[in-house]
Amino acid sequence: MTVRQFAVAAAADIKWITNSAALLRRRLRYSDREAKWWGCVRLLTEAIGLPLKTAAEAATALLRVTQSGRQVTIGSDPSHSASLVVDLTRYESIFLGNLSRARVHELPKRRGRPPRLATSRQALSSAHHYGIDLGLIRSALARTPAERLEMLEANALFLREMRRKQK
After folding, report:
1. Are 84 and 75 in contact, with CB atoms under 8 Å apart?
2. Burial environment of residue 42 by CB neighbours within 10 A (0 to 12, 13 to 18, 19 or more)
3. Residue 82 to residue 86: CA distance in whole angstroms
4. Which of 113, 94, 93, 104 shows the shortest CA–CA distance to 1?
5. Distance, CA of 76 to CA of 85 (rounded, Å)
6. How many CA atoms lie less than 13 Å away from 114 in the CB half-sphere?
7. Counting Cβ atoms within 10 Å, is residue 4 exposed (0-12), middle (13-18) or buried (19+)?
8. What are the phi and psi torsion angles at 99 (to 5°)?
9. Which of 21, 24, 147, 156 would suit a FRET pair with 135, their CA atoms being 20 to 30 Å apart?
């Protein structure tokens, strides 16, 4: 997984992940599991407003839950009048969508020269399948450059005469 794919899967900025990893003294490993964790940390810090360290601890506790399909309470006050509940199923669904987008749209750049364009035979074959009449093209290519120029001048003269007669 590339850095860009990792950031897209985590729904976070590359710089934010790098700086947060430095603050948490956490080594970056570009894997699906780490992207899921960083996405959860970003969600808790930016959407909820938890401090980075608290969000990291909460994300670790949240992703330890093995049962999906339920809401997980991360923290609450002693009287249980206020609590932080995360819908784990919804988060996993959003993360999987981000991961899919990262894998499909954020492809790593290929090394080396770009592949060669289609050869003339492939181009002619494609044109034929598209429905283009290749007879005129082949007859023009069979002529010498001087004959082609002569034909072009004759066509230009014909067009000038037609325009003059229309006026």
Report:
1. yes
2. buried
3. 13
4. 104
5. 9
6. 3
7. middle
8. -65, -40
9. 156
The one-letter amino acid code at 74 reads I
Cβ contacts of 111 within 8 Å, gap of 6 or more:
none
Q: How confident is the model at residue 62 (pLDDT cuts 50, 70, 90)?
A: confident
Amino acid (one-letter) located at 6: F
Give the pair of three-digit tokens for residue 163: 């325009």
How far apart CA 72 and CA 40 sit, in angstroms, is 13
Cα angle for residues 150, 154, 158 (degrees, 5° grid): 170
Residue-averaged pLDDT of the chain: 84
107-164 tens-digit pLDDT:
777 788 877 765 667 777 888 888 888 888 888 889 999 999 998 999 999 999 998 8
Quote the CA–CA distance of 84 and 48 in Å, as a whole number: 9
Q: Report residue 143: phi and psi, to 5°.
A: -80, 165
What is the pLDDT, as a whole number, of residue 119? 66
**Structure letter (DSSP) for residue 118:** P
